[in-house]
Each structure stands twice: as C-alpha cells, then as structure tokens.
Specification:
Length: 296
Amino acid sequence: VLALRMEATRLSQSRHALGTLLFFVIALLVGLAHLFLYASRTAERAYLWFGLACLAFAVNALALSPWTAPFAVALGPPFRLSSASGHFAAALLLVFLYEAFGRRPRPLVAVYLASHVALGALVLLSPFRWVLISESPRFLWLLPGLALALGITFAELRRGHPDARFLAAGAGVLSLVEVAELTRLADVPLPIGLPNVGFILALLSVAAMLASRFTRAHRELDALRRGLEARVAERTAALAHATQEANRANEAKSRFLANMSHELRTPLNSVIGFSNVLLKRAARTRGVLEAKELDF
C-alpha cells in the first residue's frame, strides 16, 4: 500500500510538473506575442499591460515548478519570485482591465494597485521570515482586486461592451481558481494541477478578447478603406464627367466662333470690296458720286 501511495504521489507530481511547464510556455508565448503586437500598435496599450501580466505569470509558474524546489528551502528565491510576481501580475491585470474598457482608475483603486507593486518589492527585498509570515494576509489582499475585476467586467457586460463576454469568462475562471486556493489553505484535497488549468483558461480567454478586438479593428479599417476607395472612384467619375462636359462646351464654343467668323467674314469682304470700288471711283470723279453710292 505504501508503494502504491508513493507511486500515486510521484505520478501526481509529474502531472503537476507537466501542467506547470505547459502554463509557463503558454504564458511566456502569449506575453511575448502581445508585446510584439504593442510594438507595432503602440496606441493599444492594453497589449502592453496584458503582455507584462503574462510574463509575470510565466515567472510565477517557473518559480512554483518542481525544478526550483531544491532551491526553495535553502535560499528562498523561488518563493520570493512566486509571491512578488503574483502581486505584480494582479496589478498589471487590473491596469489592463481598466485600459481595455477605456476607464480611469479612481484614487482608491490607484492606491490599491500601488499597494500590490509595493508588496511585490517588499517580498523581493524583505527578510525571508517576513515573506513566509505574511503569505496568508498577502494572499487575502488579492481578493479585493478579484472582486473589483468582477464588478467592472459584469458592469461592462450589462452595458453591452463587445469585449466584456471574454473578460467575464476569464474573471469567472480566476474566481474559481482563487476559491480553490482558499479551500486548499483549509486543507481540502483538490487536484494539484487545477490552478494551472484555471490560469491557462483565463489567459486564453483574455487573449481571445484581444484577438477579437484586433479582428474588429482590422475589419473597421478594411471597411473604411473600401469606403474611401468608393468615394475616390465616385469623385474620379464626377471629375471625368465634368471634364467631358467642359470639353464639349469648349468644342461648341469653337464651332460657334468658327461659324460666326465665316458668317461675318463673307459680308464684310463684300463691304470692304465695294468700299474700295467706291473709293477708286470717287478718286476718278473727284468726289462726285451718285445718290445710291452716297447712301452706301
């Protein structure tokens, strides 16, 4: 029986190590991908905050992995990294949430965000004994942030925000993960890999939201481009029509002037010719002309 229990424990730890590795890889790749997206679209700061949050989760997963266990007892850096990255990730996720919904955090919320950044710095710099003693209070301090995230997300969901359904799914999964961690603190047996699965689903839901936003923006830009092309084609056709009308008017003017020139030139030639004849006759007769000639 003891051998079976030891084998079951070993298999459970192996599954936990595999789940942690999978979560680390997914968080790292998703974080880097969104940082690259931010580099190409710097106006979308939501990519920046979510990418940094994913990197914080990746550090958290690496610090909690079984590969760092030999260093945890002697030195404590993995435990410090795990705790500090958790606080940094919480602050970054809340900033991302406000950025995604186009909101500005209120002063109390800003203080709460700054408290997580300060706690992360304290965990990295304080004595290891304080880090161990403050683990439970610091974990409970994450709960107000979770409640705040749920409140904002479901408020935007009621307003019909197009991205709220993805974030609501992610916030719901994170809530279940936090409840699982609380029950684990109460010595309730739960699957070891449950937090990793929950965090993976939460990150994928947020990534799906950002992908949907990117697709929607691309469609809007494509529709704007097509509309601009249609307007340019319409203006070009109108310009071509106006040019044709101007050319026809110019041709009509030219024809009119040509006809009028012909009609005027013919009688004027006669008048000029007859005037020359009269001048010659007057010169011969010394100015004596007939009555009809004088009338002319």
